[in-house]
Every structure is written in C-alpha cells, then in structure tokens.
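tl;dr need the bound structure. longer version: we got a ligand (adenosine-5'-diphosphate) that a collaborator sent over and nobodys looked at where it sits. i said id run it. heres the input, straight from their email, havent touched it
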Amino acid sequence: MSDLKVDLTAPNGRKITLPIGIYINNEFVKGNGGEIESINPTDESVIAKVSAASADDVDAAVKAARQAFNDPSWRDLPGPDRGAIMFKWADLLEANRETLATLETWDNGKPYSVSYNEDLAEVISCLRYYAGWADKIHGQTIPTTPGMKFAYTLKQPIGVCGQIIPWNYPLAMAAWKLGPALACGNTVVLKPAEQTPLSILFAAQFISEAGFPPGVINIINGYGKEAGHALVSHLDVDKIAFTGSTATGKAIMKTASVNMKNITLETGGKSPLIVFEDCDLDQAAKWSQIGIMSNQGQICTATSRVLVQESILDKFVEKFQEAIKTTSKVGDPFADDTFQGPQVTRAQYERVLSYIEAGKSEGGKLLTGGEPHKNVGEGKGFFIEPTVFTDVTEEMKVYQEEIFGPFCVVVSFKTEEDAIRMANNTTYGLGSAIFTQNLERAHRVAEKIEAGMVWINSSQDSDIRVPFGGVKQSGIGRELGEAGLAAYSQTKAVHVNLGLKL
Ligand code: ADP
C-alpha cells in the first residue's frame, strides 16, 4: 500500500481504498500543509488522515490550472467533446455511487438514504445537466446600423476558477460549481471543506479516467486560513466561487479584490416560513418540519423562522410538534429509519447548544428539544434534539442569527403586512416559504419578500434547472440552471463595420 492511499472499512461494512493526497495535474501527491483528521461525528473516532495543501501547493495547483487553460486541448475542445468527458465522469461516479454515499455519510453524519438518494442523485444529474450545456454556449448577433454595421457576442470562459466548498453538502456543492465551470471551458482549483475531505478524493480518482486533460480539475484539501486564503489571494486566479458562512464570504470578498477577481458568493440565511390562516394546516406543519430539520438543520436555506398568523398559532404549534415527534427520528446515520444524524463537528454541536442557551436566557420558551440527544452514540457523537422555541421576539439573537442546526423559532403575526415586514427583518435574503390557499396572496407576498427563492406551499425545493442564490447578505450571483453558466463565462462584444466608409 502506497502512503498516499488508505484501506478503510465503513460502519456499513463497505471496504474502501481511499486516496489521501492532494490532486494536481491528474496525480495524487503529498500536500505540504500537514494533515487533516477526518472525524466521524457519530462516535468521534478518526476515519482517516488526509494531506492538506500548503500555500506552495496551492500555487502549484494554480500553475497546473493555468497551463491547462492556456492549452487548447481543453478550452478549444468542441463543446460536444467537452460534454462527453463530463458525461463519462458522471457515469463513473454513478458506478461508484454506494461508496461515495458511504463516505459522505461517514464523514458528514447525514443519513445514508439522503446521501444516496438525494446528494448523489444531484451530483450525477448536475454534471450531466451541464455536460449537456457544453455545446449550447454561444453568443448573439445584434443588428446595429442596418446594412452597414452589426455586432456579435462571444461567450468565453473566465480562466482559472478557485472554488471553495462547504461541509454540509460536500459533493453536491462541488458538482454545482464544477459543472458550469467545466461546461464553459474554465479550469478549476477546488478546495473542499476541512471538515469533510473524503468523498471528493474518491471522486477525483475518476477524473483522468473520464478523459479530463491534466490540470483541468485540481482538488486541494486544506485549511481555510492557509489553502483557502492562498487561493483567494493568488494573483493568477481569475474567479472565486464560494459557499459558506457570511463572515467568511465577506473576508473572501475583501481578499479577492487584490486582482479584482470575478466572485460568486452563496452565504448564510435565516429563511422565513410564513403560515397564513387560510393555509392547509397539516401540510404547513409537515413542511415546516422538513424545512428546518432536514440535513440536521445544516442548510443555508433552512426555514429557521416560522411566522404564524395569530389566529391559528395554537393549532399550528400542536401540529408542528406532532410532525417533529413522528418524523424527526434522531439516530445512527447508517440506520434505515434515521431522519436526523449528528451535527458535523464538535464546533457546530457546541454552537447550536450555545444558541439554545441564548434562546433561554433571552426569554424564549422552549417548546421541544433543547438538549444533546442522549439516546444514541453511547455518550459520544454530536447529536442534538430537534429544538423549537416560541415566545421569541424580533430583537433576539435566535431570531436574527443563522444557527445552522435543528433549531427554529415560531413567532406570531397579525396581518399580511406584518408578516412581510417581519420576514424581511434580517440581514439575510436566501430562501422563504409561504403557506396559503389564496392564489393572489401567494403571488403578492412572493413578490414582496426579500429573498432569492420563494417556495409556495413547500420548503427547500431545489432543482438543477432552477437558479439558486441570495440577496442582501446571503450572497452575490446565482448557481444552477442557465444562470449558473453566466457565473462562469464572460461576454465579449465584437463590432463589425461592413459598409460605413470614412
Ligand atoms: P464554517 O464557519 O461553517 O466552517 P466557512 O464559511 O468558514 O464555514 O467555511 C467554508 C469554506 O470556506 C471551507 O472550505 C473553508 O475552509 C473555507 N474558508 C474558511 N476561511 C477561509 C478564508 N479566510 N479564505 C478562504 N477560504 C476560507
């Protein structure tokens, strides 16, 4: 066994040989930034130690990506051929779907059924969706002075793209960023989150087999402050795409100004879910549970503020509590009936617990949960009970700040105007949900809400064909769909003079 691979046996019995180097120029090499310990959040054991990239390693990865960008074998490859390579990678990932889902669950703590059925399905279909776009990216012809002049536009890749990935959807967020970047002909240096380095290493093994030329995709695990910072401050990186916290997004925005990098940022949220008295109450309660408790509450779009019309508050609270009781089964993420696994790391676990304390000390009333979940993990692991506070006011931290856990607040409102004002009363603007059977109200409120996405009688819908992103301090730019291509291409205008003689 080379020292750049490790043999593992997962909790579900699956045997996995995992590369542990950093991936530059289609090869795994040892990183010089020390090691990252990947911790199993279910029992706090060490799964594996993988290489971390130093600033010099980041420089080597950027050089590889630059060379690959300058080399016509990728950028000038006809769209159908570039797409074919992406399709091949998607096929190879599909053939290894169980192993990838196993690594995702083991490392992140999300239920295996979610990793397999949702995350991996999304990864594969996202790569295929953008592979399909690779031969459909082109400009327009614009008549200017009829008979004499016209202009046309060229859609060109941006160059070397740095992509910084969060830990809540490690592979899916990588696919959202790689898909459009590659379809447009860019080259990439991708930095996974240090909390979840494993699944992308396994996926990287198939990059050269799929046919990507060396340097087109480079994967550098590493720490945010070292490898992340080196990537964002690198003068030969043309673009940074980031998903993560708002605080880190702001720091990245500042650093990226060093050479005025193109940026897209997908940051935090405190998404409202508004329940009007004319809604289907059973549905509102069930979707409210899904909206905040899915993925351990670790979703930037999680509907963490439930605003309920005063006249139905008591009835809603009863049904919401019931939905949590019957659906939010906390347990071993590899068990079939688990809805909620552990939080990803001790730091996140302690962060959520500190917000529970804040909710109590600020005068909120604990409706349910509020404790570490003790019935799993034999005293180990980062499990938290699904938690709901009522009697919360708009000034409280738990109303204003992103918590990123299975934790929400229920607050009442009187009128539609109140609901809109309260929904918009945070610095964020990512997701939002409206429950009503009144068609006019649904569209009226959807228009007024300050958010990048609105769900009517639903929560957390996302589809690779539909733009995803936020307003206010929830981010800049859009991912997914055709909008996602705009983030990875630039438009060149070419003016043509056919007949105007001087
Ligand atoms: P969290 O606080 O939830 O861990 P972050 O937003 O800090 O989330 O992390 C998201 C991603 O950003 C990770 O890949 C992390 O390594 C990276 N990151 C963190 N700090 C920096 C930084 N200063 N520069 C670049 N990347 C960073």
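gonna send this back to them w/ a short note. The CA atoms of residues 226 and 236 lie 17 Å apart.
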